[in-house]
Amino acid sequence: MRIPQRRRCNLEIEMTTLSYQSSVASSSTPSLCVQNVTKSYPTPADPLVVLRDVSFSLSPGDRLAIIGPSGSGKSTLLNILGTLDQPTSGTVSIEGVNPFSLSAKKLAHFRSEKIGFVFQDHHLLPQCSALENVLVAKLALGRVADDDAQRAGELLREVGLEGRATHLPAELSGGERQRVAIARALMNSPRLLLCDEPTGNLDTKTGAAVGELLTRLAQQTNAILIAVTHSPALAEMFPRKMGMVDGKLE
After folding, report:
1. Which of 46, 97, 123, 191 has minimal Cβ neighbours within 10 Å of its Cβ?
2. Could you tell me where the DSSP H helices lie in the chain?
3. Helix axes 174-186, 148-158, angle to 10 degrees
């Protein structure tokens, strides 16, 4: 049966519209859900409460800056989001998975595959070149494919270090070392990128450049980007900002 030309055209338009609506719905569906998370530590007296009933959700491509004074619970929250620590109560879901329900081995694999970290200190291996430090992220998954070195080189090019691939960390500036750390964090194409004071050890100009690089690359990869920071300048680069005070996120 032949479909008239006009009907074929209408069908193509309808299919294109449905495809677009589906892609929009998919990109706007939260892939990080935090519900009523609390964290406390036992003490000889009363429990020390660090996080109090924290709830929020983010979708792919969202960028959130969390601002607050030292000791307010920012880093504790980041550690829980990164599955490095467990909440006392509440739930965390990453792409529909409760990571704390996984075995230790599966959790380690999940963390390496889904989550990228950028810390205030770069934590590069001093005996390894910039390229090798980026490839370390692949070792965490237990495998290094033939094309991984090519991808690591491409990431170094993305962060502006194409000519520094063979340099050791001691031969790089502070800003360059942090750029290597960003490339390493992106090596496994994480869906969640967590940054703990990523510009804290950098001067104003270098910090601004690293902040712009982080937000641009996260946007390009459609990853969720969360940064905790004391820096108002870095926070201004994020479309969404929340404050942490006494363990409460507002």
Report:
1. 46
2. 5-28, 74-81, 104-114, 130-139, 148-158, 174-186, 204-221, 232-235
3. 130
Which of 243, 245, 191, 214 shows the shortest CA–CA distance to 26? 191
Q: For residue 10, what pLDDT is reported?
A: 44
The conformational region for residue 71 under phi > 0 = left, psi -120 to 50 = alpha, else beta, is left
Helix boundaries (H) for 115-203: 130-139, 148-158, 174-186
Task: Specify whether the CB–CB gap between 144 and 176 falls below 8 A.
Answer: no
Q: Which residue, among 208, 241, 236, 213, has the nearest Cα to 226 in the 3D structure? A: 241
Tokens 């001691």, located at residue: 170
Candidates 50, 30, 31; CA nearest to 40 is 50
CA distance 23 to 114: 21
117 is written with which tokens? Answer: 């970290």
Give the pairing of strands 63-67 and 224-229.
parallel
Domain ranges in the chain? Answer: 36-249
Q: Where are the alpha helices (DSSP H) in 167-242?
A: 174-186, 204-221, 232-235
CA distance 210 to 217: 11
Q: Is the pLDDT of residue 156 over 80?
A: yes
What is the CATH topology of the domain spanning 36-249? Rossmann fold (3.40.50)
For residue 229, what are the β-bridge partners?
Answer: 67
Cα dihedral 77, 78, 80, 83 in deg (nearest 10): 180
0.90 surpassed by pTM: no
pLDDT, position 120? 86
